[in-house]
Structures are given as C-alpha cells and as structure tokens.
Amino acid sequence: MTPVPISRRRALILGGIGAVAATAVAIDSVASHAGSGTERWSPADTGNQLNQPAMVDSKDGRLELELIAAAGVRLAGRDTHALGFNDSSPGPTLRVRPGDELAVRLTNRLDKPTNLHTHGLRVSPLGNSDNPFLRVDPGTSFDYLIQIPPDHPAGTFWYHPHHHGMVADQIFGGLVGALLIDPSPGQAPALDVTADHVLMVTDITLADDGTVAAPSAMDRDRGREGEVVLINGQHCPTIPADPGGMQRWRFINGCVSRVLAIRLQGHQLFQIARDGTYLPAPAPKNEVLLGPGNRVDVLVRPTAPGRYQLSARAYQRGSMGSMTITSGFAGLATMDVSQIPVTQPLTPLPDALPVETPTMGAVTAQRQTIFAMTTGADAGAMGGGMDGANDAGATVFTIDGRTFDSARDDQTVALGAIEEWTVINTTPMAHPFHLHVWPFTVLASSDGTSPIGTPQDVVLVPPQGWVRLRIPFTTFPGRSVYHCHVLDHEDLGMMATVNVHP
Ligand code: C2O
Ligand code: CU
C-alpha cells in the first residue's frame, strides 16, 4: 500500500476543519453522486480469536531492534492508512529484564517528526535514553540506548512517540506498543497462570477509505475519542479460556483521551498491579479504572462455561460549557469459557505479591502546580503551543499559567529530594497527570478515593479538584517532563519541564 502523507490526507478528509455539519453534507453528496453507499469504515474481524503482537525478547542482557514508524497497517481485519511500528499497530511487544539494555533504532518513515518515550520506565531521561526533547525527523533514524536498572520492578509498561505537537495524532494513528519487564530469575511471584495476555486498548476513527480522521478544534479541546475501540488492533476479539484455569491480563490504556472503566460480565477482576508495580495482594474488583496511559494487571478465573463480555462502561470525565464529556460505552472482547469439564478446583490466588517497599525519608519540599484552561480572547493574548496549533482565540491548556516551552525549566529539584506535590485542576474536566522517570504515590485526592499506596505514573485529577502526591526524586538526575496524558491537551500546551540536578 502507498502511504498517503498525513498532511495531504488531512486536507482530503476535511475541507473545513471544525465544520462537522459541512463535512457530513459533503459525504452525503458524494454518496448520492456515486450512487453507492459510503458506509463508514467498519471492522471486519469482530469475534476473531485474540492475537498477541509479535514478541521480541532480550538475549544475554540486551534487546536490540529497529522500530520503523510508518503509515499503512492492517487494523480490525482491514488495510488502512493508520500508523504502526514495523507494519503493525500495536508494534511489537518488547520484553526485557531488570539490568538489561534496550537498544532501539527508531526509523522515521512518517512525514512529521517523531521520537520515542518508554512510558513508566525508571530510566535516565538524558542523552539517547528516555529523552522527550529529542526529535527524529522524517527519513532519519536515531539510536536509543536505555539502561534498565537492576532493581527495576517487573511489570507492564509501554512505548509511544512524544514529539510535542504531534503526540495525539501519532498515538491516535496507532503508534503504540507494550514494553514488559520480566522478573529477574528467582524473583517471580508464584502466579500459576495458563495465559499471560497483553490487552493494548486503543481507539481510532477511520474514513471508509482507511484514512485516519482529523480532529476538529472541539475534539482537541475535549480530548479526541475514536469511534472504534480496539484491543491489540482487533475489534472485540474472543479470548478463549478454560474453567478453573487462571489468566493474567495486562490492560494498557493507549487511547489519547478515553477513560476506561473495565468490567468482565459475571466475574470479578483480581487486580495485582497498577502502572507496572505490584499491589501487596490480589484485590477483587468489579471494575478497574484506567486513565489514558495507565496500566492495570488482573488475574481472571473463569468459573462456568459460557460467553462473557469484557467492556468499558460509559464514564463521564467532565464537562465543557453545558455539554458533558463522556467516554462512551465500548465492548472490548468476549471471554469464551469452554465446556471442557474441569474437575480440579479453581487455581488459588497468590496470598501475597512482591510489593515494592516505598522509598523512605522525610518530605523535603512541597509545591503545587495548576492545570488550567483558557478560552477566547485571553487565550489569544497568551500565545499558544508549538507549530501554530493554537489560533488566537482558541482554547489554551496551561500549567501554572504557561504553555509548554522545552527551553524553560519549570521546576528545579535537587536529586535526592522527596517532595509533596499538589496538582490542582481548575477546569471542569479530569486531566490525567503523568510524570516521567520518577513515579509517585498518591496521598490524597479531592474525590475522596482511598490511595492504593503503591507507586504509579498516571493519576486522574478530578474536575475542579486536586491530588496530593509524594514523589521521591532519588534515582536519576536530568531534565524531563510532566503533562496531561489527554494527549491533545499536551500538544496544546499542557506540559511542563522538571530539572533534577545532582
Ligand atoms: Cu505516555 Cu509523557 O507520556
Ligand atoms: Cu488534560
């Protein structure tokens, strides 16, 4: 397939950005002239058995591979102009161990700059490691070398582009992949599972010719959500299971803006980890909640034969003016539990998990940071994000009153500090706060949810609310970023730098 450059596709799809009604009329008139239906793109693989992305393992302490970002992948059983790594969305699952080095040559065959972020990894943000300030131009390659510390927790992480201004387009387009840290030999908890699945959830909107829909200004303000929700690039796949057996499912919310409140019909989900770190013990849940970027690992124990729907319920994530902003209901998959008679009892859940002991020490500083949004004339006066993303008068998303500037140090922290941050949200919608490199524990939240006590890297800050976090800056020096993981907001300016100096 010949990939059509994104800019041209955009021009083709939307004669008038933001003119939703006009676009619909145009499609109708094309349909009547052509005399055939122009049905929207629809999945062609619903119900197929769940696939896993290709798995690439480290050998002798090193994982070396090339990731080629390009347009033209199969999604949900159809050829599309969506984006992928190595012809696939999600890209290959990278599997490494603590102490390994991850050597990735990123080759950019897109028509826009890109780069690579290892989301959630506790690794250096400097040089050619997990450095969000790097820029890999179209037609070029860049060699990343990421040293995974020997004491890195084992768990579920992911990778995606992070070039400011293009992040939402590129992730929505399909540039995501799972990154698993396996336990070091001898450190594994006794999880007696018959299957260990990555469930990478993404959403996308495609035109009937397989081009990715461009968002309107309104879509970006709310945070775009795709019409089709996919797991591992498949639409509502079937997950086979045997009664009595136990499976591990690693959910990754790779959606640009969608919040996932996931349930499995007729079953509890036994949560064992969040954002790549274990809970103290399996926690039975009727629902697990993932903001954009979050991961949740669960154990599933199918009970009786039958077909059970895995779905995300409608979740209201805020409002704008008089309109509510809701992540709509989405069917995700069907668990198909076989009729095989099983005599053995349910596989026992582990009593305890290898939970991490938190970094000890007194809090050395407190600070607060404010996530806000300005519309209209004020926004025009404030300037805007990069790349002319904000026209004067459009909505501007800020942190502490400013849009992102990669050259400015917004927070300066001494290496070794243990800080308490209060993240304040003055807007009527939830923003998922994400900090690179240095995971935090949530101490309290304005919505009253009880903190889980283990480190995480994304937390939803409630509308007109706040969260209080404890952040040990004790591991790596260097500059990196924190931002809203509704990636449209990040691209519109809701990102700031933190410089941790030795
Ligand atoms: Cu998943 Cu800074 O991002
Ligand atoms: Cu946001």
UniProtKB/TrEMBL annotation:
Alphabetical UniProt keywords: Capsid protein, Cell cycle, Cell division, Metal-binding, Oxidoreductase, Signal, Virion
InterPro entries registered for this protein in UniProt: Cu-oxidase-like_N, Cu-oxidase_2nd, Cu-oxidase_C, Cu-oxidase_fam, Cu_oxidase_Cu_BS, Cupredoxin, TAT_signal
Pfam families attached to this UniProt entry: Cu-oxidase, Cu-oxidase_2, Cu-oxidase_3
Signal peptide: 1-26
The keyword Glycoprotein belongs to this UniProt entry's keyword annotation: no
GO MF annotations in UniProt: copper ion binding; oxidoreductase activity
Domain of life assignment: Bacteria
Domain Plastocyanin-like: 77-184, 197-319, 393-501
A biological process term (GO) from this entry: cell division
Protein name: Multicopper oxidase with three cupredoxin domains (Includes cell division protein FtsP and spore coat protein CotA)
Organism of provenance: Mycobacterium numidiamassiliense
